[in-house]
């Protein structure tokens, strides 16, 4: 059943936490296969079968609740694990760079680079506005293990110059995003977000999916599910 409240929160604040119906078996499988012990994260995981299955199930669930259209496609999956062995902090930023199939030639694509052998670039704002990040929590995330912090409503300003970020965060404030195992934080990638180091480090495993909800872009995505 569609939940207009979630849609309203995504439009106004740019984020919302929702439950999922993923089984404990699948969550355990993801914990044991999608992460590298002692490492902060792994990119480009859509070709990993349990991750691809999870992307499909999340799309189905979020379609039933009216959050994603039926034609939405997963274009990215990253594993993050903030733990005693990898306890990091991230400054305020937007997610702007996404994996594409080839070096970009189309107008509006910026900052082309190669990471781990894959092409990345910043798509035009029109494409960035069609993206939804779905951060699936595989552990409880409380105030002690470095939860995500967001600045509500800042996704509505498009790509923000780095030097403007502190002023905008000061104007719009910040919220802390806590979640239980199996819950998903929905977030617009243009939403300003950050995280601090954990004060009581323990596993904080998150599978970060990005779904595209629009027409095929000028530059094809590197992988889709």
Task: Describe the protein's architecture and organization.
There is one protein chain. The protein has one domain (4-212): Jelly Rolls. The strands form 3 sheets. A 6-stranded antiparallel beta sheet has the order 1-11-8-13-3-2. It is globular. The chain contains 5 helices and 13 strands. With 225 residues, the chain is α+β, with helices and mostly antiparallel strands. The model has no long low-confidence stretch (mean pLDDT 95). Strand 6 (110-115) and strand 7 (118-122) form a beta hairpin. Helix content is 21%, strand content 28%. The chain has helices at 4-12, 24-33, 49-64, 125-128, 165-172, and strands spanning 15-18, 41-42, 73-82, 90-93, 98-100, 110-115, 118-122, 131-137, 148-150, 175-177, 184-187, 193-195, 204-212.
Question: In brief, what are we looking at here?
Answer:
By secondary structure, the protein is an alpha+beta fold. The chain has helices at residues 4-12, 24-33, 49-64, 125-128, 165-172, and strands at 15-18, 41-42, 73-82, 90-93, 98-100, 110-115, 118-122, 131-137, 148-150, 175-177, 184-187, 193-195, 204-212. The longest helix is centred in the N-terminal third of the chain and has 16 residues, at 49-64.
Helix content: 10-25%
Counting DSSP E segments of at least 2 residues, the number of strands comes to 13
- Average pLDDT rating: 95
Radius of gyration: 17 Å
Strand line-up across the major sheet: 1-11-8-13-3-2
Shape: globular
Residues in β-strands, percent? 25-35%
Through-space gap between termini: 23 Å
* CATH-derived architecture: Sandwich
Helix- and strand-based class? alpha+beta
CATH-defined topology: Jelly Rolls
Provide the succession of SSEs.
Answer: HEHEHEEEEEHEEHEEEE
Q: Which superfamily, in CATH terms, is the homologous superfamily?
A: q2cbj1_9rhob like domain
Question: How many separate domains make up the residues?
Answer: 1
Report on the biggest sheet.
Answer: 6 strands, antiparallel
Low-confidence stretches: none
């Amino acid at each position: 059943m569609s939940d207009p409240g979630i849609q309203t929160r995504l439009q106004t604040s740019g984020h919302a936490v929702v439950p999922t119906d993923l089984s404990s078996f699948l969550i355990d499988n993801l914990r044991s296969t999608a992460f590298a012990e002692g490492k902060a994260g792994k990119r480009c995981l859509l070709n990993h079968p349990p991750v691809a299955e999870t992307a499909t199930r999340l799309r189905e669930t979020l379609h039933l609740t009216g959050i994603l259209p039926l034609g939405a496609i997963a274009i990215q999956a990253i594993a993050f694990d903030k733990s005693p062995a990898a306890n990091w902090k991230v400054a305020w930023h937007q997610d702007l760079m996404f994996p594409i199939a080839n070096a970009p030639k189309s107008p509006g694509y910026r900052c082309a680079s190669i990471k781990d052998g894959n092409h990345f670039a910043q798509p035009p704002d029109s494409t960035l506005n069609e993206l939804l990040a779905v951060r699936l929590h595989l552990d409880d995330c409380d105030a002690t293990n470095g939860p995500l912090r967001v600045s509500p409503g800042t996704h509505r300003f498009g790509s923000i110059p780095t030097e403007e970020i502190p002023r905008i965060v000061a104007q719009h404030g910040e919220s802390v995003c806590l979640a239980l195992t199996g819950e998903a934080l929905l977030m617009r990638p243009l939403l300003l977000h950050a995280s601090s180091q954990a004060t009581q480090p323990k596993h904080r495993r998150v599978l970060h999916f990005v779904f595209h909800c629009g027409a095929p872009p000028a530059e094809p995505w590197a992988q889709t599910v």
